[in-house]
């Protein structure tokens, strides 16, 4: 029944009072915002330089916060340093040096470029107070400089640009506090330290833990700028190569019911009352994607291992580059992809990351990786024989330990001239339960590992796609079937023969660059002793 408009009901009254309450709340919110803004303005006013004394005070000073809050639209980084040109540069004050009261030098750095800027007292632009302000800047502060480019008659040492910027205006956008480590110290090579020591000078050596505790500063060294650009490039080439070969990218879950692939190296967690864990690899789900007719898939994502190993090459979290594909007749199809993929990665890195590799090599000298256009493949038995011939005794049906792998790497380099090769047909007993046994000898398996400079970067194999055999192998390896029942069930509705491999991104970069520790190639490494920053 409709109600006449002139006679408000109790429902109308409730809605009116609701509206009034809303209006009041909006008013309060507006008031609160205004008060916040006023407080902010007061705070930033106190940051501004006392400009009363200096008629040129507008040419320098700390930029007030409210001006940096996306107020002006301006491209502040224009590194066109041709002579007599006016420039506007934003970068870090890498070094600051005053020369008397009338002149101060600042070397400004921005992503690998450095340029010397000089503030000299000038009647209409630069005051003595401004020179004092420049000289008082703290290292690594972010500054904006407006100036004019000139070419000095003498060589400028220690900068990438052979020009000088005559400063007209200089503003500090973000002040750096006292640095716990100097970038210059963190960028020094061991060779430099040794050389100085021999000359009687003791230079600071920044150790690994100090670096990792101050990772944001550590990133600013040329070597680290190089390492993480190289890392990005590896991921990009991996993705592009596989896309061009008809693979597509998937994203498997990292929260897993049960115990992932089993074993001790699992991070267990409580999933809303159910036992769960973090995925030790995308193994099971990438295979399930193949059962879903995805044909050829890859993934780039986090992998979690509750490692107890305190080694130079194990992390508790790393980036896995994973591939899974149907195979038509032989697991060599997977090894073909590995070979071509990695030769493409190496070729492209050498071509496109020259500067980065050079920067890494300056701090951590290394020899370029030796690899063949056609990747060498050896069987496990051949590898064992090579070790035996060199007088090294190893269990022919056991896994190779780190030392044996290193030694075999040396032998392979001497004999075949490559530091990148594939070792295949491993004994079945040393491979995971889902590995396909060899058709001619079930003591061996259709599996492989891939090595760079004598260290493993990849494990791969043809997988068991027959559910009965899969269950049998899992049981034989001591895995409780009910914990992987959804995985095994995925193979019950017809599953194509398939295989794949998993690569550790940090290891690839570490070994390609001949680095001695995986923590150098992990952005924020997680190891048994470190979960921060
Ligand atoms: P390793 O024998 O060196 O411990 P794995 O046999 O356990 O390695 P897989 O489980 O087959 O290695 O993982 C595939 C790839 O992932 C390895 O070849 C390696 O590049 C990388 N990887 C494995 N474990 C780690 C780890 N803890 N930290 C960093 N990378 C790892």
UniProtKB/TrEMBL annotation:
It catalyses: tRNA(Asp) + L-aspartate + ATP = L-aspartyl-tRNA(Asp) + AMP + diphosphate. PROSITE patterns: AA_TRNA_LIGASE_II. Residues 22-37 have a biased composition (Basic and acidic residues). It comes from the Eukaryota. Residues 228-525 form the Aminoacyl-transfer RNA synthetases class-II family profile domain. One of its GO terms (molecular function) is ligase activity. It holds the Pfam family tRNA-synt_2. It is found in: Cytoplasm. The keyword Phosphoprotein does not apply. Residues 1-45 are annotated as: Disordered. Its EC number is 6.1.1.12. Keywords: Aminoacyl-tRNA synthetase, ATP-binding, Cytoplasm, Ligase, Nucleotide-binding, Protein biosynthesis. Belongs to the class-II aminoacyl-tRNA synthetase family. Type 2 subfamily. This is aspartate--tRNA ligase. It comes from Prunus mume (Japanese apricot).
């Amino acid at each position: 029944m409709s109600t006449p408009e002139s006679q408000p009901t109790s429902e109308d009254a409730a809605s009116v009072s609701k509206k009034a309450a809303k209006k009041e709340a909006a008013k309060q919110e507006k008031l609160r915002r205004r008060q916040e803004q006023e407080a902010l303005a007061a705070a930033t006013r106190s940051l501004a330089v006392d400009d009363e004394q200096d008629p040129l005070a507008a040419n320098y000073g700390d930029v007030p916060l409210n001006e940096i809050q996306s107020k002006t639209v301006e491209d502040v980084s224009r590194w066109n340093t041709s002579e007599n040109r006016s420039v506007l540069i934003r970068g870090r004050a890498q070094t600051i040096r005053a020369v008397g009261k009338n002149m101060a030098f600042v070397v400004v750095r921005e992503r690998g470029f450095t340029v010397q800027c000089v503030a000299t007292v000038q009647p209409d632009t630069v005051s003595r107070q401004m020179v004092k302000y420049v000289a008082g800047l703290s290292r690594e502060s972010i500054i904006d400089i407006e100036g004019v480019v000139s070419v000095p008659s003498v060589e400028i040492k220690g900068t990438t640009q052979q020009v000088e910027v005559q400063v007209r205006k200089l503003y500090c956008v973000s002040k750096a506090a006292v640095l716990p480590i100097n970038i210059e110290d963190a960028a020094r090579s061991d060779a430099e330290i040794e050389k100085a020591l021999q000359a009687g000078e003791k230079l600071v050596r920044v150790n690994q833990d100090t670096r990792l505790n101050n990772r944001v500063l550590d990133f600013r060294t040329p070597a680290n700028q190089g390492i993480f650009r190289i890392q990005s490039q590896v991921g990009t080439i991996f993705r592009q190569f596989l896309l061009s070969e008809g693979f597509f990218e998937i994203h498997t879950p990292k929260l897993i019911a049960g115990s992932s692939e089993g074993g001790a190296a699992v991070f267990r967690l409580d999933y809303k009352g159910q036992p769960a864990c973090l995925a030790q690899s995308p193994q099971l789900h990438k295979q399930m994607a193949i059962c879903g007719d995805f044909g050829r898939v890859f993934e780039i994502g986090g992998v979690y291992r509750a490692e107890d190993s305190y080694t130079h090459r194990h992390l508790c979290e790393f980036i896995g580059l994973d591939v899974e594909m149907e195979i038509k007749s032989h697991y060599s199809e997977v090894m073909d992809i590995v070979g071509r993929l990695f030769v493409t990665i190496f070729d492209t890195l050498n071509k496109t990351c020259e500067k980065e590799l050079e920067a890494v090599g300056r701090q951590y000298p290394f020899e370029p990786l030796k690899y063949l256009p056609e990747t060498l493949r050896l069987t496990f038995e051949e590898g064992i024989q090579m070790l035996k011939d060199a007088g090294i005794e190893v269990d022919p049906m056991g896994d190779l330990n780190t030392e044996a792998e290193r030694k075999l790497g040396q032998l392979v380099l001497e004999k075949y001239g490559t530091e990148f090769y594939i070792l295949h047909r491993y004994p079945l007993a040393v491979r995971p339960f889902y590995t396909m046994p060899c058709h001619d000898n079930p003591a061996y398996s259709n599996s492989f590992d891939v090595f760079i400079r004598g260290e493993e970067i990849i494990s791969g194999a043809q997988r068991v796609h027959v559910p009965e055999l899969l269950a049998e192998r899992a049981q034989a390896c001591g895995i409780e079937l009910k914990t992987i029942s959804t995985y095994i069930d995925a193979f019950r509705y017809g599953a194509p023969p398939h295989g794949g491999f998993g690569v550790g991104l940090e290891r690839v970069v570490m070994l390609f660059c001949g680095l001695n520790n995986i923590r150098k190639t992990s952005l924020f490494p997680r190891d048994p002793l470190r979960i921060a920053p």
